Amino acid sequence: MGVRSWFEGWPVYRQLTGTDPLGRGAAAKSDGSRALTARTDTADSMARSVCPYCAVGCGQRVFVKDGQVSQIEGDPDSPISRGRLCPKGAASKSLVTSPLRQTTVRYRRPYGTEWEDLDLDTALNMIADRVLAARDETWEDVDAEGRPLNRTLGISSLGGATLDNEENYLIKKLFTAMGALQIENQARI
Amino acid sequence: MAEAHPVGFQWVMEAKRRGAKVFHVDPRFTRTSALADSYLAIRAGTDIALLGGVVRYILDNELDFREYVVAYTNAATIVTEEYADTEDMHGLFSGFNDDNATYDQASWRYEGHSQNQTTRDSETQRETAAGLENESHGAPVGGETERDETLQHPRCVYQILKRHFARYTPEMVERVCGIPQEKFLELAQAWTENSGRDRTGMLVYSVGWTQHSVGVQYIRTGAIIQLLLGNVGRPGGGVMALRGHASIQGSTDIPTLFNLLPGYLPMPHHANHPTLDAWVDSIAHPGQKGFWGNARTYGVNLLKAYWGDAATADNDYCYGYMPRMTGDHGTYQQVLDMIDGKIKGYFLLGQNPAVGSAHGRAQRLGMANLDWLVVRDLFMIESATFWQNAPEIETGEIAPERCRTEVFFLPAASHVEKEGTFTQTQRLLQWREKAVEPPGDARSELWFFYHLGRIIRERLAASTKPRDRALLDLAWDYPTHGPNVEPSAEAVLREINGYDVATGRPLASFTEMKDDGSTVGGCWIYTGVYADGVNQAARRKPGSEQSLVAPEWGWAWPANRRILYNRASADPDGNPWSERKRYVWWDADKSEWTGYDVPDFEKTKPPSYRPERDASGVAGIAGDDPFILQGDGKGWLYAPTGVLDGPMPTHYEPVESPVRNPLYRQQANPTRKVYTHPINTLNPSPPQEHSQVFPYVFTVSRLTEHHTAGGMSRTVSPLAELQPEMFVEVSPELAALRGLSHLGWAHLVTSRAAVEAKVLVTDRVTPLRVDGRIIHQVWLPYHFGYEGLVTGDSANDLFGITLDPNVLIQESKVGTCDVRPGRRPRGQDLVDLVVDYRRRSGNLVHRYPPMVTTDVADTSSDQEA
Ligand code: SF4
């Protein structure tokens, strides 16, 4: 390495002579950092999404590499958020990739003291059995005056407000057809 | 707002840079206060007194935007002679019925109306949270009214309002809220000076206003101010609800609520809605004006969407399949019913009531007394592990080997692992693309409910029972795709939008809906989101390439309108009120409404249009009536019907308060919804004895770094690290009084629970002088629980259950407590401590009907005593 290139490699020199007087960009780069590329550049795909926390509805860009979420960033195109995310929105990647996430069905039998494993299909069928049984046992056809009730008060539901509209639509549709009236949501709270 | 909606707050800062003055009113100094021009520390639960003071200031000084008020509000409308005000009745309105604590609203009606048109009595309206139906339209009234546009008639709304708020003086604001008069006047002056032709002022609120026993009236007071100042339907104006969850607006529009169907149609009631005709006529009274006159169309389209080909004119579109309400079936009633063993199964779908709902102990004991519980979540939340780790394990109230509840935990897909729409706080639908497949057994709710429905229908396929017809006839054939057999969210969105049955063409607008079964539409207010077969919610034209209104980003209901009632941004003749505030106006050359937004008015109805005397529906709305979903086309300063606790807001003390109401003898909202269950114990408030046992006011709210019950933040390491511990903010004065030390421990006690927290001694909370004495307030975050990376006691355990009568939201923003140094006791000692507090405070539970205190004089406070 010649003296000149050694000298030009000195960040302060670059900061004073280059286009980065504050030393926050090019001037501060080392050979190591110069060789890095952003995860967003090397992603296989990007999905346009929306932050799942509050109702400001900030735009997110979800970058995917090898089938895994590699980065979530604010969407600069969004007229709502202009690329910004708050601490929660910025933690979305940690949310979806958290090692604490449960990815298998867990089952606790009545009076049980431990969780057990259960196959998803079995769980779904067991739940269907219980829904139908609870509905049968608590069904009300008519009121005291013979007016229709068509319902069960033996089943309850409480949903969060991070459910999609399409999901809420199917939930309400199915429960209504089942006669299950006691369907509530965070929106009450 | 800077704390809980940080990225939204950038627009407040942008406005501030352009000269807007920002006022922040909060019991505690927050990041928002730090950036505001002025901060007003308020006693929790007294906002109506503050806002009422502003109403009085406007009216006394005649600072209202008179042209707007006369033309667009009901200020000029005359009210019947039978009406009597809180001024004359110690804080009650006329029509109060002691037996069931409800108002007969007949005496509130407009002059000349024989009766209000609602078919349901007030008690049924309270039980079924009927106020929620008004989210998309006003309560029914007839269109013809008697008016005095000079506003001088003693019974015109303007004069009634003036009299009603006469006692909300600056002195009274100071006495009730603890806000110094100069501070109050600074706010009132700035608000009025920045409203009018050239300027608009905006009001922003969140659950600090809604979670009260008189919460709907908080917002009504804000709306009255904004109408008086001409700040509704205009750019930079409005009453902005900042909602706290990604799609909480969507969860009311397409509700999973017991009392509503999509598009704010009421769930049928057994006595009031026996037939399709009775149901639709109760929504749109024959002869009523406005868009809501088409209720039959919206109802029939929903029934067609539910029951498809089986729904025909001959069988009233399967209306008979609908389950019927008989009363209150809300979440708090359900929990008490669980404790009483009446409920067998419970689904929790991304919701954590063990931490997030009021009276956590009642929530957990309820869950421990079920046959089965299904929890669908990303993480192992408190509501799934109550049988193992609840605080009641330590006290012996729950023991795994005695707890019969069978628990299924099913992992859920995250927001990047499924596609669909969220509706954010401005009614804007935004479609999310799917980035990756969900891991392992994780699935979307769409998957879970589609397949649950499929299996149930298969099981019942051979059934001949009438009750199963509704399931078997259900239109449930959604296309599926991918390795998990995921139903198509886009197909569901198309059904929500609606389409023509014969051709399958998606509807462009709800005005294309027919009431003869030839169209289908699952949620009429969302019609247009799939117009032209294009997913309009997926539009992503960059904001930088659009106007400020950005109409091509996502899609807002109704009809992609970004500001509701925007006809009011033009004067009665259709011209902008000013160049500066130009938004939507009448283009006389083209004979149509035009502007920066989609006009919220019939496009070609001229400002000069006047309806025939008995015109109904949309034809009944005049060309200068901007409030097209109101029966009289006007913005309501006074609600002649539909608001169960009064036609105008009145300050009542919170149900648990250390203070006797300084404004009226009536202490608390007389019509509040109460539950008399023994678990629902009550802290006494004046004029009851022993209120000094719980001398301090506590309030709760969010931290920037956490999300509600913590299920999506205490489980995420960067967020957990930023806010790792439960804490309580106390003033230096209270710390000295109660012997608390900074970073030491304290515990708070109510008649429900004791919770402990680390002490943060800070000037952010300050003692207030209220009605001649010092009131100490403390503040806590409500995010903590016993699972996740960071844990702590739950603030919501401190609250009892009392609800607003209009919408059945709980009072969980204010309560009374005692504050003690050190950690709370454990096990039986903890139970004993709470029992002792109950004993010393008189062992109270809620009673029905709630206490009326108008005959208990308080010499220091009642001006007429
Ligand atoms: S990034 Fe923050 S402000 Fe934006 S939607 Fe998410 S939680 Fe709300």
Automatic annotation (TrEMBL), chain A:
Its main location: other. It comes from the Bacteria. InterPro entries: Mopterin_OxRdtase_4Fe-4S_dom (IPR006963). One of its GO terms (molecular function) is oxidoreductase activity. GO terms for biological process: anaerobic respiration. The keyword Iron applies. Its cofactor is [4Fe-4S] cluster. It is found in: Cell envelope. Residues 44-100 form the 4Fe-4S Mo/W bis-MGD-type domain. Keywords: 4Fe-4S, Iron, Iron-sulfur, Metal-binding, Oxidoreductase. One of its GO terms (cellular component) is cell envelope. SUPFAM superfamilies: Formate dehydrogenase/DMSO reductase, domains 1-3. Belongs to the prokaryotic molybdopterin-containing oxidoreductase family. This is Formate dehydrogenase. It comes from Micromonospora saelicesensis.
